[in-house]
Amino acid sequence: KQEVTQIPAALSVPEGENLVLNCSFTDSAIYNLQWFRQDPGKGLTSLLLIQSSQREQTSGRLNASLDKSSGRSTLYIAASQPGDSATYLCGKTSYDKVIFGPGTSLSVIP
Amino acid sequence: DTEVTQTPKHLVMGMTNKKSLKCEQHMGHRAMYWYKQKAKKPPELMFVYSYEKLSINESVPSRFSPECPNSSLLNLHLHALQPEDSALYLCASSRGGLQPQHFGDGTRLSIL
Predict the structure, then answer these.
(1) B31 to A30: CB separation less than 8 angstroms, yes or no
(2) Which chain A residues are closer than 8 Å to B48 by Cβ?
(3) Are B102 and A46 inside 8 Å of each other by CB?
(4) CB A100: neighbour CB atoms within 10 A?
(5) Which of A4, A34, A110, B103 could make a disulfide contact with A44, Cβ separation 3.0–4.6 Å?
(6) Do A107 and A90 touch, CB atoms closer than 8 A?
(7) d(CA A75, CA A72)
(8) B50-105: per-residue pLDDT in tens?
(9) A44 interfacial to chain B (CB closer than 8 Å)
(10) Contact B105 A42 (CB under 8 A)
(11) Interatomic CA distance for residues B13 and B109, integer angstroms
(12) Nearest-CA neighbor of B51 among B104, B22, B91, B93?
C-alpha cells in the first residue's frame, strides 16, 4: 500500500524564520511530487510540482526538493510571513491518482 | 481566483433529499476528479473521469453518482446520504497522467 507521511504535524514559528517541511513516501514507481497549500475551509492551491526526473523546483520564497532514492521531499520556506499560515500537503501523483500526506499545519506568529 | 469553479459553496440537505454538486473548468483539461475531505484529514480520491469516461471509482457507495456531461463539466449527484457523508467535496482537473491537478474551492456539505 502506498503511504505518504509528513512531519511535523504542526509547526509554529516567529515571523522571518526559515523553515522546512518534510514529506516521505513508499514505492519509488514513476510519479510526480506536488506541494499544495490549503487555507481553512478552502480548496487546495498548487505551489510546486517536481517531476520524477527533477530534483528541485523554486518559486519565489519556496523551494521544493525531491530525493527519489530515499523517498523524501522537502519544502523550504524562506523568510516566513504571517500570510504563510496554512496547512501544507504533499501529494504523490502516479497516473491520475494523487495520494496525499496528512499535512503540516503552519502558524507564523507576527 | 481558482480556474476550477464549484457550486454551490455550501449545501445543507436532509438524508432523503436529492441534490447535485457541480464543477466546471475551461482549461481544456481532459481529466476531472472528485475528492472527499473530512476535517483535519487529507483529501481522498472518489472518482476520476478521463476523456469524459469514468476511469477510476474508489469503491464509493452508490448514493454518490458522478456524471461528466462534457469535457468542461463534472457533476456529483447525491441521494440518501448519511450524516457521515458531511465533508468538503473537492473537484480537480488536469491534463491527465502525471500532470499537476488544479483544485476548486470545494463544496461544504452538511447532512442533517
Answers:
(1) no
(2) 96-97
(3) yes
(4) 23
(5) B103
(6) no
(7) 10
(8) 999 999 888 899 999 999 999 999 999 999 999 999 999 999 999 988 888 999 99
(9) yes
(10) yes
(11) 8
(12) B93
Contact B100 A49 (CB under 8 A): yes
Which chain B residues are Cβ-neighbours of A3 within 8 angstroms? none
Report yes or no: A101 at the B interface, CB cutoff 8 Å: yes
Phi/psi for B83 (5° steps) reads: -55, -30
pLDDT confidence of residue A28: 65
The values of phi and psi at residue A64, to 5°, are -115, 140
Please count the other Cβ atoms lying within 10 Å of the Cβ belonging to residue B52.
16
Task: Say how many C-beta atoms besides its own lie within 10 A of residue B11's C-beta.
Answer: 17
Confirm or reject contact between B6 and chain A (CB < 8 A): yes
Tell me: the pLDDT tens digits for B22-47?
999 999 999 999 999 999 899 999 99
In angstroms, the CA B51 to CA B111 distance is 32
CA distance B30 to A105: 32
The string of DSSP letters for A47-96 reads EEEE-TT-SEEEETTEEEEEETTTTEEEEEE-S--GGG-EEEEEEEE-SS
Q: Per the CB < 8 Å rule, is A49 touching B41?
A: no
